């Protein structure tokens, strides 16, 4: 069985492409996180190329934007092409059969607001100047 299921974030604006003079398709890439981490909590990610045709292409063209979280299902297709140097470049692409949003509009807005909010300033751990004569006011002297 050839079925890829994944979720991730659209990493670039979807692009309408033409297959010769035939019907168009929409291509985009999603960034998916792996379950493993490396180097002090840094998340490993993969970039997965996706291709939509038919109804899914129309949906992707109208509603997908960079940063949108989505879930994708479909067969994984392999292929290759020769680059300008004549070397074979192997590709893996998901032919999207199912495409759904992975977050609501409210969740997306809240996430974007959180991403744009600067982190809180670090507390000031510098020493305070002690006023002259304060040692006479201390009850334990």
From TrEMBL:
Gene3D superfamilies: Nucleic acid-binding proteins. Pfam families: SSB. Keywords: DNA-binding. PROSITE patterns: SSB. The keyword Cell membrane does not apply. The keyword DNA-binding applies. Residues 105-141 are annotated as: Disordered. Residues 105-115 have a biased composition (Basic and acidic residues). InterPro entries: NA-bd_OB-fold, Primosome_PriB/ssb, ssDNA-bd. One of its GO terms (molecular function) is single-stranded DNA binding. GO terms for biological process: DNA replication. It comes from the Bacteria. NCBIfam families: ssb. This is Single-stranded DNA-binding protein.
